[in-house]
Write a structure and sequence with these properties.
This protein has 2 domains: 146 residues, Rossmann fold; 69 residues, Orthogonal Bundle (Arc Repressor Mutant, subunit A), CATH 1.10.10.10. The chain is 48% helix and 12% strand. It contains 13 helices and 7 strands. Strands 2-1-3-4-5-6-7 form a 7-stranded parallel beta sheet, with helices on both faces. It is elongated. It starts with a helix and ends in an 8-residue tail after the last strand.
Amino acid sequence: MRQEEAFGTESLLTIPVFSMQAPAIPPQNMLAHTGLVATNLAQKVETGPLEAGSKKTVLICETQPITAAGLRSLLQLSGDLEHLASVSTLEGANEVIRTRQPNLVILDKSLGIQAVLEWISQIKRGEYKGIELILWGVSITEAEALRFLQAGAKGIVRKTSDPETLMACLKAVAAGSSWMADSVFRESSRMERYSRSELTPREQQVMEQVEQGLKNKEIAKELGIRPGTVKIHLKHIFEKTGVRGRYGLALSVMKEKGVIEMSQPELARQ
């Protein structure tokens, strides 16, 4: 798919297909070695405890039993988080939420993107909207991450992340923040090099509208300009920021506003 097509005519509610290279190490194998994980986590995790007396319960909704077992082992190492239950379907998650009301839910993207989006929206509209949701998967594109965040998810992390990153995500969400792994946001380093002052007032307006999920015709109507003019403004915004698509642009605005936290790249933590 050409990038012009991605930001020129598509709504943010339509997911383009991006090619993602599969990780060399299956995530279930990484999490299955719980002894090694325990050692590494004890030595390297520096996320800090939550407030005293604020231990949070976690529901795991994961399709792979071995991966779920690895997650349970990680949670056992945390004094702040407690494994409540593990299920493999959204229906099972509904039952646990209804009867036991966990604080956090880890959702497997492989349950189906549309099914998960609808489920998140349902939870956030219902009586259990206070439950915080973390979405994880082997591969997550910027477009998918944005849709999950807009639906109501508070955490986005890849299954290929290291244990410290996963625990940082869980603890940040448990503390009330929105959080996304830096590896999902491919433009992170480029965005650090631009200043919002480099954008014209109109370009800033367009960027704000993109963050809200509006497509080009809607932005044009909102700002009283032509759709073709919106495309020109987006082209200039992409050139100035170094971001290549509207999904990354929307995420960058959310990051700049502090709406979501970003994990630090692996090299930055070493």
